[in-house]
Amino acid sequence: MPRPSEPTRERIVQAASALFYNEGIRRVSVDEVAAKAGLTKRTLYYHFKSKDDLVAAYLAARDQPNLALFRKWFAEAEGGLAVKVEAIFKNLARSARHPKWKGCGFLRTSAELANMPGHPAIRIGAAHKKKFEDWLRATFAEQGIADPLKLARQILLLLDGSFAVVLLHRDPSYMETAGEAARTLIETALGKQGVSGVRT
Amino acid sequence: MPRPSEPTRERIVQAASALFYNEGIRRVSVDEVAAKAGLTKRTLYYHFKSKDDLVAAYLAARDQPNLALFRKWFAEAEGGLAVKVEAIFKNLARSARHPKWKGCGFLRTSAELANMPGHPAIRIGAAHKKKFEDWLRATFAEQGIADPLKLARQILLLLDGSFAVVLLHRDPSYMETAGEAARTLIETALGKQGVSGVRT
DNA sequence: TTGTGTATATTCACTGGTTAGTATACATAC
DNA sequence: GTATGTATACTAACCAGTGAATATACACAA
Q: Which residues contact B177 (CB under 8 A, 6 or more apart)?
């Protein structure tokens, strides 16, 4: 059969992603994933040792693309630091208006598996959010902000808060409100920065 | 048997609360809830017409006590508006250090049932958060803040963000960071308020 | 060129357990 | 003697994971 066999594994992960994200982890059976991928459950278990393993693969596949998207939205925005960060929230609001949007897969998984704190999928989610936080922190540090880690965490809190609130109310305008708050916090931090601070 | 029969229904809701909150909605079976309440599943189905009904009752029971706790934390704190709101976050951080803490039941339920947008439990969760938002809005309005609704929503975003982030990282210090951000936003809003603004 | 062994990849059929919800009967109180 | 409340026993479906067999590709020997 196919020698490197990555297409099969890839197909399984993509089927799992669509189902887990749309329906929830525990709602979706391994049989459903296999059917959607066009193969039998037994074949799926050849590529993944357990359902938990598959859940971890689902989130791992979303890690880099998600981060790249945030960086792209930031990079493409015209303006100062605060405006560029606010652009992330505006773009997110746009995605959230899509009818199939159902929040952040990482956060929803950690909520659903809250009774299994050490679950591999939760570790992947935590690492993902740390990477985002660290990218923000480094960006803020470059701009000479006094406490870049604190500010990065505050932005992250607003971002994840908007995922949660918009999922509950189905009202993406909360994301724009979060973006305004982020802008305020960044402008305040820029106002307090030392004379050596770099501006854009 | 007991005539008003409210103790039985009450016992079921309490058993359901403990199990749903600790293990997750879909993880817990109706049999488990019945067993924990000390009666049979058939009796449970006499008091609730479905599992969905029971899930809604679980969240409805948390609505008022939760709001009362937030108001109490706010009322008992010494200081100005910003400090009193920050106190909510500090108290929340304290709760989150308890080993059995597992985030916000309303948000976790909305994440787990994200594929059922009209679910009664999600409606109850949305109404709960709206009540909190409205209480904050009214409080800010009393203090003469220019756009009390916007500020209330920003605080709510930080609060729900801290639930999500702390659940993921199991690091309650994020709640204190959120509290600082809330204080900054409120102080900024107070600084911009009209001359007629009331101070505390 | 042809035969053969081996690792990779896939399927069918199954198990043991769980699950939401119900048909029916029984008990108690007033 | 009827409302309310509780229990036993059941259904029909679902679900994570496995045993055993099979098919293919390719390396290497004859």
A: A150, A153, A154, A157, B162
